[in-house]
Design brief:
- With about 260 residues, this protein is an alpha+beta fold.
- It has a domain of about 90 residues.
- The chain has 7 helices and 10 strands.
């Protein structure tokens, strides 16, 4: 990755890549519930951003350092072929002892997310004004209020500066997706495709990583620079979709053949 590409790491994520949790909740004088919520980025979305901007071989995790209370994790990226490392730490996710691997893994994940924030990834989320949940009966999430009742809610709308930039098209309209990789992620995370992936024993993030990795490898084996320039954004998106559909079809065919053998 070249130095001028570093700002791409700090670009806002599509809202579909964000996770949410309730920070505080209560009831107004009229008895109606309220909840302050905060967005955060899942580690898998951060990995996808690093792969997208730096390339799968352009970054790596350093060996974690275990301390009495938590884990110090380093992340290195190659900038103009020179490694740049940032370190940060996080507490163990629960009471830790020598045999508790999950709490150590949780500390590594927390340290990884904090270290990547030092490169700008997701930093914009730490500077948002107070956000209130959109509480409604058909909400996607739910929380338990102080009155003991459960309330459903949807994430609030984010301000424009916390959304991916949109570039005007020739007809004056604005596209919903800013690049082929983000567009592909949105397509894979659709309900229909998620169901097909579950049937094939794949998660959405595994499929995204495999498809992007396949496309990156294909570009690396391009004969000339002209071949790479001919790969337009729309063509890259189409090729990733076609590759994933072919992979799912192949897995389904293999599974059918296996059932026939043991029938």
């Amino acid at each position: 990755m070249k130095a001028e590409e570093l700002p791409r790491l700090a670009e806002p994520f599509p809202p579909s890549d964000l996770e949410w949790r309730v920070l505080r909740s209560g009831n107004r004088k009229d008895g109606s519930p309220w909840a302050i919520v905060i967005p955060y980025i899942d580690a898998r979305a951060i990995v996808a951003r690093l792969n997208e901007v730096c390339g799968p071989a352009g970054w790596w995790n350093e060996r974690p350092i275990a301390t009495e209370k938590g884990v110090i994790q380093g992340v290195t990226i190659l900038v103009d072929e020179k490694p740049i490392t940032r370190w940060d730490g996080a507490d163990y996710t629960r009471d830790h002892d020598d045999g508790d691997a999950s709490s150590f893994k949780g500390g590594c994940t927390g340290g990884f997310k904090r270290a990547t924030r030092m490169f700008g990834i997701g930093d914009y989320l730490c500077h948002l004004d107070t956000l209130f949940a959109d509480i409604r009966e058909e909400g996607k999430f739910k929380f338990k209020g102080k009155d003991g009742a459960y309330h459903k809610w949807n994430p609030p709308s984010l301000p424009d500066h916390a959304l991916p930039k949109r570039e005007p098209q020739s007809n004056g309209q604005k596209p919903d997706i800013i690049n082929p990789f983000a567009k592909f992620r949105t397509w894979v995370h659709g309900d229909s495709m998620k169901q097909k992936l579950r049937e094939a024993g794949w998660t959405a993030d595994e499929a995204i990583a495999a498809a992007i990795g396949h496309q990156v490898e294909k570009l690396q084996h391009a004969v000339t620079a002209e071949d790479i320039r001919k790969s337009t954004d729309e063509q890259l998106y189409k090729e990733m979709c076609e590759w994933l559909q072919a992979e799912l079809k192949g897995r389904a065919s293999t599974e059918r053949q296996g059932k026939e053998v043991f029938a």
